[in-house]
Design goal:
This protein has about 280 residues and is of the alpha+beta class. It has two domains: about 130 residues, Hypothetical protein, similar to alpha- acetolactate decarboxylase, domain 2 (60s Ribosomal Protein L30, Chain: A, 2-Layer Sandwich), CATH 3.30.1330.80; about 120 residues, 60s Ribosomal Protein L30, Chain: A, CATH 3.30.1330.80. The chain is built from seven helices and 14 strands. Strands 1, 2, 3, 4, 5, 6, 7, 8 and 14 form a nine-stranded mixed beta sheet that branches. Strand 4 and strand 5 form a beta hairpin. GO terms for molecular function: acetolactate decarboxylase activity. It catalyses: (2S)-2-acetolactate + H(+) = (R)-acetoin + CO2. Keywords: Acetoin biosynthesis, Decarboxylase, Lyase, Signal.
């Protein structure tokens, strides 16, 4: 299956080592992977281990481009960890070990069908560069500060897996919206559903983007969560944990695919629909 179908208009790839722009036919030739991990797919995976993939851009997402067209099956070809949101804001997504999970507005967790669509997504093949242990992390701000101090440089992209025993975890969800989409994230996020759970194990999946990313993605840290029993998850809001292990993968290539839709073609990148991203 090709990487791009009619739902994707452009794919842009940037390397922080050497500036590069790949013509579409060359990208297509590289993206002829299939779900089975045969030798060709294994080689393709090796080529992508330092690449951060994104579908749509943050500036469009916060400006009410809420209808997406990226199938779950295509996302799985871009990495084995990831996070994002489903079309029409019909739930949050977290991908761990190659399996995407959907958290609906009631907090229920399940594996979505391959043809379900995403409106915004990030993914990478996680190839651990470094890890460290923390006996206790009492809140999210503390974790962001510790990780920030340990990053080799804030001028690269990073993927994270953070595991631990969570004394408490608070996650945010999303409630499905229907067109016309009149309310932006500035209204929807403060009213989002919130889920809480105590005393269990799980994994935070996240990414860090440098400040130069602008409105293409969220600058700084962005984490989603899935419990070990796959019964709880969402966008990480706050937590308290012990026996924490932080593993990260530094990436020097970044590529994103732009939606092929009338809403995206006509969107105006206003700031009025922004909200304070944690």
């Amino acid at each position: 299956m090709p990487l791009l179908n009619q739902s994707t208009k452009w794919l842009i790839c940037v390397s922080l080592g050497v500036a590069s722009c790949f013509a579409a036919p060359r990208v297509f030739a590289q993206e002829k992977s299939v779900v089975k991990m045969d030798d060709a797919a294994a080689n393709l995976r090796a080529d992508r281990t330092e690449t951060y993939y994104q579908y749509s851009i943050w500036g469009a997402f916060v400006n009410r481009v809420f209808e997406g067209f990226l199938p779950v099956e295509e996302l799985k070809q871009q990495g084995d960890i990831g996070l994002g949101s489903f079309t029409k804001l019909d739930g949050e997504m977290v991908m761990l070990d190659g399996v995407p999970y959907k958290i609906d507005e009631t907090g229920k967790v399940f594996v979505p069908p391959n043809d379900e669509k995403l409106v915004y997504a990030n993914a990478a093949y996680f190839d651990e560069d470094q890890s460290f242990q923390l006996p206790a992390v009492s809140n999210f701000e503390m974790l962001r500060g510790i990780i920030g101090d340990r990053l080799p440089s804030r001028n690269y992209f990073y993927a994270f897996k953070v595991t631990g025993n969570f004394k408490s975890m608070k996650c945010g969800g999303l409630s499905r919206q229907e067109p016309p989409f009149k309310e932006g994230l500035d209204v929807l996020i403060p009213a989002r559903p919130v889920f809480d759970r105590e005393n269990f194990k799980g994994t935070m999946v996240g990414f860090f983007c440098p400040s130069f990313i602008g409105d293409i993605n969220v600058a700084g840290f962005h984490f989603h969560f899935i419990s070990d029993d796959k019964q709880f998850g969402g966008h990480v809001l706050e937590f308290d944990a012990t026996d924490v292990t932080v593993a990260f993968d530094q990436m020097d290539e970044y590529k994103f695919a732009l939606p092929n839709s009338e809403a995206y073609e006509q969107v105006s990148f206003e700031k009025s629909f922004q909200y304070k991203q944690k």
